[in-house]
Design goal:
Helix 7 runs parallel beside helix 8. The protein is α/β, with parallel strands linked by helices. The longest helix is centred in the N-terminal third of the chain and has 15 residues. The chain starts with a strand and ends in a 9-residue tail after the last helix. The strands form 2 sheets. Strands 1, 11, 12, 13, 14, 15, 16, 17, 18 and 19 form a 10-stranded mixed sheet that branches. The protein is elongated, with a radius of gyration of 24 Å. The structure holds pyridoxal-5'-phosphate (PLP).
């Protein structure tokens, strides 16, 4: 096996429970788009049953995969849905996001009539992220019109924030004000139809309690990764999050290299002294960012070792001169713990010039994932690790 991801579903559930408690009485919905941020869509969705009030996905096929696995948690598709997908989505009872009043709305109503069942929708409002959403000024009319359409069932109205990772964010306060102003004309309707208002992703849910409304949509925090260092510094004392994912591989070979020798493509690295260079069987095609060249680290034998030379498509070099016992077959940890040392997704991502979100979301679906079940973990045994 070239590399392996170990996903601790017990840690995932504990994070989810803590988040749910942290945002209560607002409801907690978990975002499981992008293969559950690289953690594996169906196992994560299943582990969150009974903890998350809803699951948010990006695409219709993700919603269908969750239903095919027999998971009944309410679903919201955040991204665009094609007309040809509407019948399947309707049969799966997944809600869709609506952000314009054009022809698509008629297709939605048509799909609903076919099933003689109103199509569940969440109305999206753009309050300044300038991505998807009705103009704030047109939102009230849209909600009023949709609420009187017997083809749709307006379950929610929501917006998405642009700058909620910052502690002092005037922009976030402004976006929330725009959201509230947009809804003010239909306040009674929203109450009467019990339309859920939501705005917060992980960071806003932590830093801006006013943004929690009826529901929060927490992705990254569910996986035990902080949305930003500032968020962590501000909230970690009140909210414990455990990393869920560990990423390991093994050294293919360890080579003795003389001083001055070039390592890898482009002769981008020369050994400064007689060195021992280990070769990893994974590269950027397996999710290790190429930008770790000259900056990255990994854990071998409980120690931090530098990534040297350019990261290749399928191979990477580490300098293990400081780990005399390193040999072909030694475990290399890219994310996770080895002895006393720990390397977090965020730290590795930071060394690559990106964020934890991107690092985990780009872990290829083909990398084998091993799931530690909650029960096995709490009994103190790592039985699943031998499976
Ligand atoms: C991805 C996403 C989220 C979750 O964001 P996190 O920062 O991972 O919690 C919430 N809402 C929308 C609309 C999203 O696209």
């Amino acid at each position: 096996m070239i590399a392996e991801l170990t996903i601790d579903l017990g840690a995932l559930r504990r994070n989810a429970r803590r988040l749910a408690a942290h945002v209560a009485p607002s409801h907690y919905a978990a975002v499981v788009k992008s293969n559950a941020y690289g953690h594996g869509l169906v196992p994560v969705a299943r582990a969150l049953e009974g903890v998350a009030t809803a699951l948010c996905v990006y695409r219709a096929d993700e919603a269908l995969a969750i239903r095919a696995a027999g998971i009944a948690t309410p679903l919201l598709i955040l991204g665009p849905v094609e007309t040809r997908e509407l019948d399947d989505v309707s049969a799966a009872d997944a809600a869709i996001a609506l952000w314009d009043a054009g022809a698509f709305r008629n297709e939605v109503a048509r799909a609903a009539r076919k099933r003689e069942r109103r199509f569940p929708v969440h109305v999206k409002v753009d309050t300044g992220t300038t991505r998807l959403g009705f103009d704030a000024a047109k939102t009230a009319d849209a909600i009023a019109s949709l609420a009187s359409d017997d083809g749709v069932d307006v379950r929610g109205v929501y917006t998405h924030l642009a700058a909620a990772e910052e502690l002092e964010s005037d922009y976030t306060v402004e976006q929330l004000q725009r959201f509230e102003r947009a809804l003010a004309p239909v306040e009674a309707l929203v109450r009467e139809h019990r339309i859920a208002r939501h705005a917060a992703a992980s960071a806003a849910a932590m830093l801006f309690p006013a943004s929690r409304y009826d529901l929060v949509r927490a992705g990254i925090a569910t996986y035990g990764i902080w949305p930003s260092p500032e968020t962590r510094a501000a909230v970690a004392h009140a909210l414990e999050l455990e990393p869920v994912l560990a990423w390991t591989t093994k050294l293919v070979v360890v080579r003795d290299v003389e001083a001055g020798r070039s390592v890898g493509y482009g002769c981008g690295f020369h050994a400064q002294r007689a060195s021992r260079i280990g070769v990893l069987p994974i590269g950027y095609a397996e999710g290790l960012p190429r930008s770790l060249f000259g900056a990255g680290v990994a854990l071998v034998g409980g120690r931090r070792v530098p990534i040297v030379g350019r990261v290749c498509m399928n191979m990477t070099f580490v300098d293990v001169t400081g780990v005399p016992e390193a040999h072909a077959g030694s475990t290399v940890t890219l994310v996770g713990c080895d002895g006393e040392e720990r390397l977090e997704a965020d730290e590795l991502a930071g060394l690559a010039g990106t964020i934890g979100y991107e690092l985990v979301a780009r872990l290829p679906a083909e990398v084998p994932r091993r799931y530690l079940e909650a029960e096995m973990r709490t009994s103190g045994r790592s039985a699943a690790l031998t499976g």
